[in-house]
Amino acid sequence: MADRRRINAPSGGTSAPIFASTVVKNPKFLQSLRPTRTRQPDQLRKIFLKTGLTPSASGSAYLEIPLLLPTTAQSLIPSRSSLKLTCAVHGPKPLPRSAPFSPHLLLTTTVKFAPFAARARRGYIRDSSERDLGVHLETALRGVVIGERWPKSGVDVIVTVIEGEEDGWWGDDITAGANKGGGWGLMSVLAGCITVASAAIADAGIDCVDLVTGGVAAIVRNPDAKGKGRDDGNGEDSYTVLDPCPAEHQEIIATCVVGYLAGRDEITELWVKGEPGATTEKLVDRAVHAASATATVLREVVKEAVELKYRDVIGGLNGGLKASTFSSEVEMAG
Amino acid sequence: MGHQRVKALDYDDDLDSDDDYFEEGEGDGEFLLKLFTPTQKNMRQGTIEVKAALDDSISISDKEIEEALWHYFYDITKSVTYLKNKHAPMPTKVAAQKKSKQVSRFDRAANSAMNTQVQNASGTVSPYPIPQKPSLEHAIISAAEFFKDVPWLKVPPHRRGDIIIEPLYPRGGLLGGSSKPSKLAALAAARKKKLESEKNSFAAAAAVDAAEQPTDKVVSLLDRLNIKGQGKQDVAANVTKNEISSASVLPIPTLRKYPARRKRSSSPRPAETREDKPASVPASDNLIEILDLRAPPSTFAATMIGAHRPEPRAQSPEGSMFSLYANRPEVANANPFSGPSPDDIVMNAQAKGNKSKKGPLKQPNGGKTPSNLADSVSSLTVEEAPKVKSKNLNVLEEFEKSNMKRMANFVVIGHVDHGKSTLMGRLLYDLKVVDQRSVDKLRKEAENIGKSSFALAWVMDQTSEERSRGITVDIATNYFETEKTRFTILDAPGHRDFIPNMIAGASQADFAVLVIDASGNSFESGLKGQTKEHALLVRSMGVQRLVIAVNKMDTVEWSQARFNEISQQMTAFLVAASFSPKNLAFIPCAGLTGENVIKPPLEKVIPGNWYSGPTLVEALDASEPAKRALSLPLRLTISDVFRGGVIHPISISGRLDAGSLQIGDSVLAMPSGETATIKSVEIEGMPADWAVAGQIATLHLADIDPIHLRLGDIICTPSAPIKNVKSFTAKILAFEHVVPMSVDVYRGRMNAPARVSRLVAVLNKHSGEVEKKRPRIVQPGAVARIVVELEREMPLEVGTRVVFRADGNTIAAGLLEIS
Q: Where is the Exoribonuclease phosphorolytic domain (chain A) (predicted)?
């Protein structure tokens, strides 16, 4: 149903306009703006993660993959998107009286893109891809939360995508039309959703068997970057990368997302898109590697948050050690 | 007491109230215990058994055991489990479990640690860690930095207070929402807290042990717990080893706060992270080398978490809005707020434009620029109330100078269907006021509904109702001009239902054109009907001169006999109605065919060519113009109120009965008594500066609400206003029998219900002398003086002509004598 309650913005893009001169007059210039992957194929982008940002929520987290590369300043449109996700966990809270009895915790996951999250503007009502992501996220989290400890209660996990991953480079969109779509960006978003939801659940203090993290791997093919990566035997010049940024690859053959419990070596969620062929298993393995790499960040962050929260106790334990070093600062804090 | 306390409690204090009940229960238990002495034996025995069952290490008082026994009704095993559970949160349980497999040193250390903690718990510090709202590491701002730009006004140092800036609370982050957790969440937090403290003390104990045996497997356990970073842990272990070896007591938890978190060095720590990587990563031929994956927050994230701004980088990250221009010197040095803002520029320009336009209107300080604020304010008020400036004309002189053509308003009266509108349509058509095309159009439309003869009448009758019914309903106004005079036609309805409209029209007229159908029975029926009534009415309204157009002569083959017959009968009647015979003119004509309207009829049309008199237009031209009551105070009867568009929100039109007016005059509307200003004047559709009596003018008014203006209201000058009266004496000419009765009083368009309260006298028709005082009845045709009381006030003055009607008939017409 059309959204009639709000004054919707004009349909169209959310980013700066592309001037015709860029496209028509000088295609070479346009190609020169194309971003390339500068990291190693098995190197992930750096992640910023922080818990406890939303005071009204029981637990919350913010995840970002910031752009750390210097800008070329030749175009107003960022060549790559930087993923920004926030997650709020509400609960565990008692189920409404009308709800039937549930012997375990009812998990509700919602993934919503902000209207301005991508270059193509989104509506306020969740569309099918957002609902799909929500279901995938629920699959990833359901096995992690120890639901038996919370009968008759529910928990809402709400992920808002402030900035999503694009499905490709904007230059390809305007030259090749809209056939580049493919939804590759959704995979990175889902991996981010899993990680950020996990951090938020940990912040909310909901019992979990382990910290689940998301990881993505992709088989990509760059025609003009022959022999740059390792040949995985799938094609003449295709190779596997971890944490793919769809804008950096001209062609993506397959992508895999996993929700992975690093401590238990268990996969809670697996989503493969594309045609990986015989290399499916390898692709999943690579995704698991990406997830376990992400887990290092998640652990550190959760640990730091706990340290901050219970610093009284920890300070007590280590007081003898640190009192002398930080005595002046302690006095300042009052 | 319990009830009252519970009532006073808030819902949030549910847990407390539970405690209250529990305590109460305990008290009851003790009381009961004392009461039933036979059970004391059981109790004593049970206590001993429980003590034996329990560990020595756990020091539990007899009283506690007794309580437990009482609660479980002397069930030893249950009591023991309960007591063990009760002390389970303490590390004792762990210790107890450990004891079976581990040697005593660890135990001792753990016990002592526990004991210190318990001791502290009895003191000030809670045994459970209270989670503090974590505050940001950067939240502590030094006072000096915070107030560095505040001048301290030379306050002597000893008087300066120490300012402590509280850390931001809640720490920066997203706003909104309630920070109060739900009940279940609170429970979860409590459980978590408990668990955490357990872990902490356990970790502490383990740390002690680890100090002794670094290679112990406890270390691996500790590693998994991950309370502290690995490196820190080692140091901690080393330090505690030194301390504990001597004192064998853990550092006492003090009230001192944990210092601000050390800044994390951004340098990668590959060794650490590699160790963090779980060993259970699936074996693969190429192990990933995991670098430090933690990124610093972007500008966006930094804003959100309230961290310090990141160090300005040589090249800001892609996607930053200002990155493109930030490095350019002209941007960096620009001061965008030095000049006036674009809004200011536009507003200044507009103000200038207004000033130049409104300059001449601003009289008091038009030329000079206001020097101070008061002046400018006063000038502002002048602008706000757009006073229309009067040209201060001497209207009478202007009127003399203008040498204006004679003007005449005439009303066309007569019985229904005698051809008033058609005759006027023919007149206008032949005078080329209405062009051929529109008449053709009207003719076609009229043929469409089978009334082709109405085409000319439709020139005057323009509303759909009038056209479909084929009669005139309301006064229609039109203008034409001859060589000598400018005429205003007031086409009155002939139907008896619309007499009030006819009165309204007649009240504006200088003279009247009485249209009479010459054919068959029409003349006779008219004489009984509205021909007579109209004639009497216009006479009583003060019309002296009458042009009688004997219409439809073509239907009687221009019979001279018929014309003479009509002339004689009408003359007799009209003279009886006190018209002067010299003011009557009889013109034979045919409105439909147009003979003798503006041009004399052709010879072949008139058999014998008997008529050689003037045409209708010539007769109209010959009429003496009415004397204009120019010197009298202004009186204007509103005949129409309308909205003349955006520029003129309220406009009126009507005939000036007396006096003159000009643009800028202030006028008074009666009976509402509201004043208005004349913004502009239109006469016959042309803008004018002034208007004089006799003209029908359109006035565009300002400063008045339309609700104060109604049809028939009088516009007068405030200096000589017309008065609202409730009762008056009038000299009347009766058309019907007049007795004390209810009547409607008409004055132009205005009418009001009234009552004839008294018949004063019957007067002589010619001399005006009193013939009979206090008559019971006034016969038709008689002149009488009566007193009328109005039900609501009407603006009337001496000399006003009024008409009395009752039950749809005109019963009398009169002249106001005393109001």
A: 43-206
Domain A34-70+77-308 has CATH 3.30.230.70: yes
Residues of chain A with Cβ-Cβ distance to B142 below 8 Å are 332
Contacts 24+ apart (CB under 8 A), A263-266: A263/A210, A263/A211, A263/B278, A263/B280, A264/A209, A264/A210, A264/B280, A265/B278, A265/B280, A265/B281, A265/B282, A266/A143, A266/A210
What pLDDT digit, counting tens, does each position of B560-570 carry? 888 888 888 88
Q: Per the domain annotation, does B804 fall within a domain? A: yes
The two tokens of residue A108 are 């509700």
Query: pLDDT tens across A1-58, in order?
Result: 556 677 767 666 666 677 766 666 677 777 777 888 888 888 899 999 999 888 899 9
Interface contact A309-B131, CB threshold 8 A: yes
Taking CB atoms and an 8 Å cutoff, what residues of chain B touch A310?
Answer: 129, 131-132, 196, 200
Per-residue pLDDT, A107: 94
Residues B12 and B65 in one domain: no
**What pLDDT, on the 0 to 100 scale, is given for residue A288?**
95
CB contact under 8 A, A264 and B280: yes
Do residue B317 and residue A295 have CB atoms under 8 angstroms apart?
no
pLDDT tens-digit map of B800-812: 788 888 887 788 8
Q: Do B293 and A311 touch (CB under 8 A)?
A: no
User: ipTM of this model?
Assistant: 0.77
Domain layout of chain A by residue ranges: 34-70+77-308
Q: Give the pairing of strands A84-94 and A153-163.
A: antiparallel
pLDDT of B392 strictly over 60: yes
Mean pLDDT of B130-147: 58
Q: Are B430 and B576 in a shared domain?
A: yes
Chain A residues closer than 8 Å to B324 by CB: 73, 76
Q: What's the pLDDT at B291?
A: 67
pLDDT of residue B98: 44
Residue B112 lies in a domain: yes
For residues B423 and B512, state if they share a domain: yes
Torsion sign (Cα): B146, B150, B151, B154? negative
Task: Specify burial of residue A52 (Cβ count, 10 A radius: 0-12, 13-18, 19+).
Answer: buried
Q: Which of B594, B622, B650 is the last residue of a domain?
A: B622
On whether residue B528 sits in a domain, the answer given is yes
Average pLDDT, chain B: 70
- State whether A92 and B130 contact (CB < 8 Å): no
Cβ–Cβ pairs < 8 A, chains A and B: 246
Domain count, chain B: 6
Domain range for B460 is 404-622
Q: What does the angle CA B544 – CA B491 – CA B731 come to, to the nearest 5 degrees?
A: 35
